[in-house]
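Table S2 (text version). Query chain:
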Amino acid sequence: MGRLRRQFYDELGREYEKHYGKEYSQDENYNAAYIRVKKLKGFYSHLKVYIIVNIIIIVSSLTRDNSNVGLDFSGLTEWHTYSTALFWGIGLLAHGLSVFGTDWFFGSDWEKRKIQKYMEKDTANKNKWE
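Corresponding structure-token output:
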């Protein structure tokens, strides 16, 4: 394990002990799982705030007109009611891809398969002229 990685995990362990008061493991798999759980927790917190804020925006657009006693549904057809949800949703999607979609495009073993493919191709080219 590299020096910077070890420093990072040591800092992470101190933070973990400070918050939870438990022994920190030097096991790299445990540390990776801990980081993954922290990322998941951050994403779910982001999603929760996104839902709450957008519900508040939509409800406030219903009760926007003070002269009416009831609900005013004309606010539901206006762009500004949903613009926050749209643009924030793009950011939330990017956050979700960073947490869940790290292997979507290349896959978990893409690098190994590509290396193997190029090695086989080089071997075939070498044997071609022999």
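Notes on Table S2: The chain has four helices and no strands. Helices lie at 3-20, 28-62, 79-100, 110-128.
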